[in-house]
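Q: I have two molecules that I believe assemble together. Could you output structure tokens for the complex as a whole instead of separate predictions?
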Amino acid sequence: MTMNIGGSVEKKDHAQKMSGKALYVGDYPLEGVLYGKLLHSSKARARIAEIRLPEIPEGYFVVDKNDVPGDNNVNIVKDDTPVFARETVEYIGDPILMVVGPDEAETERLLKAIEVVYEELPAVLNVRDFDTVFFEYDFGKGDIEKAFAEADKVYTEQFETGYQEQAYLETQGMIGEPQPDKMTVHGSMQCPYYVKGAVVRAMGSSPEGVQIKQDTTGGGFGGKEAFPSILACQVAVAAKKAGKPVRVIFDRREDMEFTSKRHPSLCTYKVAVKDGKITAMDIDVIFNGGAYTTLSAVVLQRGIICSSGVYKVDNLRVKGRAVKTNLVPSGAYRGFGAPQTFFAVEMIMDHIAFDLGLDPMQFKLDNAVKQGDATSTSGIYHFPVPLPEMVEKIDAASGYREKRLEYAIAQTGRYRRGVGSSMFFHGAGFTGSGERDHIKAVSKLHKYPDGSVEILVSNSDIGQGLKTTFSKIVAHELNLPYEKIIIENPDTDRVPDSGPTVASRSLMTVGELLRRAAIKLRESWVDGEDQIVEERFKEPDFLIPFYIDKFQGDAYPTYAWGVNVIEVEVDTLTGVSKILGAWGCFDVGTPVDLNVVLGQMEGGYLQGIGYASIEQMAADEKGRIRNNSFSDYIIPTSMDVPKLEVIMHVEKYPDGPYGAKGAGELPLVGAPGAYIGAMEQALRKPINKAPFSMDDTMKVLQGVKL
Amino acid sequence: MNSIDFVLNGKEVKFTGNPAARLLDVLRDDFRLTGVKCGCKEGECGACSVIIDGLLVNSCMVAMGSINGSTITTIEGYCETARYAVLDKAFASVSAVQCGYCIPGMVLAAECVLAKTPHPTEDEIRVGISGNLCRCTGYNAIVNAISIAAKEGNGLW
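A: Yes, here they are, computed for all two components at once.
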């Protein structure tokens, strides 16, 4: 039989998850496993003068930096995130030590009995007060001074975005299990080989001395890209010291306060307009990196590359900085820097259109790039840019143009409506030459004598359906029933390094490797024999090489595109706003399994709407994250956006499997622009921040300055 | 005399531990029913939902002392039923399960929606599952799945 690539099948992991039988890290038997509890810093910045321990009973252990057999640096991008705190703590939550023991209550009692004597140091708690720049990049093109000098009008505005917490339903968790000849760590994670690299380094071990296994993972959204490397090092060190398995499962408050979240941003845009066209942009981007660098360099790179949006800007200057604050380290979250800058560029485009008396969607379309145009980094949009067709589709579904005109007429009465729009892309895969220079992905297929075929890759199914889509690709090429394809959670002792599960790369890049591997296997297939085939990453030959030092070339091989329309109704008495409809037209190339793709689009879009509206998180004057529970950090329920409609558009990418492009992140990126655009129309006020909550609405209604 | 007696997934069971213990912890740790998920321990997320005497309840908010004489169903018991089979097929048909962590609770929420209203409107479904957070799906597929189950399971509820 031939697999219907576009259609849908029962997901590979459906039955296990549906019936509650799937084992997440917290579900393993507890017998013989010690509980580990972390002592987190209670100060934003301090020198640790002394740690006073209570009497530690037999069988209990205190684990800290002195127990790290290898290097007390977590292998992320740079060497500054410690496994356990060094002489100083740099944010509230910095892990100082771990108490480990057989009884959970006793372990907690010991933890609470520990006294840390801090010598407090001055802390930077507001991003505007930064004194340390972690990363700084600038690039540009054209003649920006000339363009501004010749402009009809110049617009300058600043935009601010807040934290966003991934809020995966399963908190972070990891178990370290010492074996006679190696350390095994398993748990909730996106990137087993990132975790392996980190544990090898912290343990001072050989690669063979560390085995990492992904357990069924209850959501990631970027939050389980880098953070699990830190926790894995900690449990490995503790398990080694105790000589027994150690498990750490975060509770929700610990997870929300102390694990990485989306970078808050401050973006300043200066835009030149001549004859109704954008002629120049001068952009300054600041991301709040928090206390350690973690992934800020790469998040910032994507953020600034996307900062001119979908627009043709011949004269461009971009400066980006990720700065240090004494707050929880920011990190990866679906969209990876792009939602912040896309929000800013979409808002300034809205504001310019308003000032010029033009419809924002038409104004945006008139300034949008086309196939063959240059990207922000002087690469090329090699493939068709389907925005005009997508705008027609979304207008037909949402009635945008008619509503926009209708709501522009002065509204009276208690309930006021507005409709907003956004256009955006997701640069598919790793930024720049990451795939070629760093990842060098390898995938394998193992055919067994009984004719079943096992997929061996390090990419993890965290809910996005990779087990299903990978299996479909291999089944399709081998003409095998879907049931004959085996795919387990990755175990670094069994699978090659096909790279991390990030950047919307897995299906597009690794899926294509698997497609080619399957063709290879088909061509060499011998019945009844055990066969293994391997396939390695090759860079598409059309690419203009990317140089990160100059920010020049093709930052991405291709782009997934999106257009959003959101319609709101604001109750001007109570400040409550209702989303009447959210429409998203998305082009992720050929959908490999339509249900899976729709699930990504709908789920990602709702996360984006949450980011724009209700998901508010902030630190207090001491640097403590206050919104540390689902009572204080509100994520959308089934009742918040009852009408959320996804419309697919297909512009195939020849180097992705069957024309597929990256899908996972795209649907989140455009939501803030469309939502805030709608709120602006309803409230008749420009808005320069996201999230824009009910409190903010009330302030606007009561004339309070935001 | 000194035990809390209740019916768990169709079997009479006794609990002799601390009556102040959380039902969630007892189900997971003592009875090893790990389909009951812990998402927040604050009654906000619904991942630990179980059915107690016909009502959907967050098991993290229930002390053992309060369940004497009750009948409790978790996903482990529910997945043996004909109604589960219908929901299973419906959820599979629209790929409503992503990371899966909210799903055991969500399935029991679906059961409670359908037990109360065998042919619910979309609004009734959305209200019925609104105490169960899902971060992956955006809820559309789950709502569709419950609608499909209501049609396909005609007569079961």
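A: One point stands out. Chain B has six helices and five strands.
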